[in-house]
Sequence to fold (180 residues):
Amino acid sequence: MSRIGKKPVTFSKDVKITKTGNSIEVSGPKGKLSIEVDDLIDVEIKENEVVFSRKNEMKKTRALHGLYRSLLQNMVTGCTDGYTKKLELVGIGYKAELKNENKLILQLGYSHSILFIPPSEIKLEVPVPTQIIISGIDKQLVGAIAAKIRSFRKPEPYKGKGIKYDTEFIRRKAGKTAAK
Fold:
């Protein structure tokens, strides 16, 4: 039995979970998310918890058991609390600016500025010019947008310049030394 899959997903009273066919919809104070569940997995919704079980012991079914439980847990957490990722810009002249609530303009040492427009489900904040906060209810989408913004200028190990996650530590390398 899957260690993750056998744990029930508990939710509070302000979250509503409905099942129609193979589709599960989670709605909460922050918004609504839905997912399609494979036929190999049974979903049982009780008063304040959801239990997943599998129909057989095939390898694919065992893999999907824990996956769907984790996806539903992420949806419940997203609809109640939401997810955030913080990015930091490190480097002289590197800065971010937010225009019209949804257009992110990045200056990252290139000859041009980079304009990034996120999807409507994502909210961007720039409290200081060297910090970007990405928030939303979909964990996967928040992570994907953070990775996309980071890919514009990944941190490099010699000077440590670039866009990094706030929890990320950049291992520094020593540069070349002069030969004597």
The radius of gyration is 21 Å.
